[in-house]
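User: Please run a holo structure prediction.
Assistant: Happy to. Please share the sequence and the ligand.
User: Here you go; the ligand is flavin-adenine dinucleotide.
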Amino acid sequence: MINYSLNVSLKNFTTMKLGGRVKFLIYLKSLSQLDQIFEWINRESINFLMIGGGSNIIWLDEGFDGLLIVNQLLGFEVENHQNEWIIKIGAGEIWDQIIEKTVLLGLNGIEALSLIPGKVGGTIMQNVGAYGQEIKDTLIDVEVFDTLTKKYQTLKADQCLLNYRSSLFKNYQPRRYFILSIRIRLIKNNFKYHPYEALDRYFDDHKISPLNSEIIRQAVIDIRRTKLPNPAEIANCGSFFANPIINQKQFNNLDPDIKNQVPHWLFDQKIKLSAAWLIEYSGLKDFHDQQTGFATWFKQPLIVVNETGRSTKDLIQFKDFIIDQVFQKTQIKLLMEPEFLPN
Ligand SMILES: Cc1cc2nc3c(=O)[nH]c(=O)nc-3n(C[C@H](O)[C@H](O)[C@H](O)COP(=O)(O)OP(=O)(O)OC[C@H]3O[C@@H](n4cnc5c(N)ncnc54)[C@H](O)[C@@H]3O)c2cc1C
């Protein structure tokens, strides 16, 4: 028998605290449950969506007339105890708790991704990245349920097409796969640090050396806590806009004032621009809109916070305003990072 709740508010399934109601809600705790759920979905032709922690999604006001599956599949299995440790992790594990565990084991490879909210499955969706690390750097493979073929499958890391804030699951085959578990490879000895400006500055200021993964984790936590709003206190979805990627010709054609100042990085033979800088340059840092109830965060304008906002419709109006103003000022079109659901 399938245990589900009916007509549940979606506000608690997004860190932006917005959205209508969902018809059916299930917490997925075991794979045997999944077989039953999928049989029910097929029999009744129900629309379905799987989520993790809701930190990268925003529900529309009309809600979802289908089944929401909240992935709570757990698991932390160490497969190897050599210099390279292979760890299999359930997609419903809380990502930051996994990092804490691996750091306590003295492992290296994901510590710079500390304090990113959400579950393990969500990290694969957009190849989470921060402070010089990305999940793709350590990923071995992903165990999935293919809702098209109705088969369990293991996809190797290169089949997952992970790139800057993108993946097979998000960009090429959206909604096709349920992510069930992942395997990552971490290093026990031979600690590696990929220099990153904000971290370098932190270690200089605090006169810290030598480094290890525990020190990196603590530095990232300290920096993030001073810079980013905690979604448990102030509703937000982290970076609301992705850094725009343009080609050399577009870069050359930028207004000289912008071209000379905008922080930028080479990326796949293209140029990635700082969206935060573009928003600030457009006069929209710490911008509060009384009418919609949304604002850009005073320390990091990439983040849109929900101050008194009540509807996703108003959030869409707010983000369209930001995109439009930035375009008028810079000729660069910002793209959103979180996703409106259902889409
Ligand atoms: C304060 C804050 C800071 C953040 N900082 C960063 C950052 O530094 N770097 C970064 O990359 N991101 C960041 N994020 C965004 C977000 O936390 C990450 O993308 C996170 O990995 C999303 O995980 P989640 O479990 O919350 O996913 P959800 O929001 O629940 O889902 C995101 C998408 O993945 C799908 N999905 C989730 N789990 C599964 C699954 N098991 N199977 C199939 N589909 C699934 C959902 O359907 C949806 O399309 C931040 C967010 C906040 C609020």
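The radius of gyration is 21 Å.
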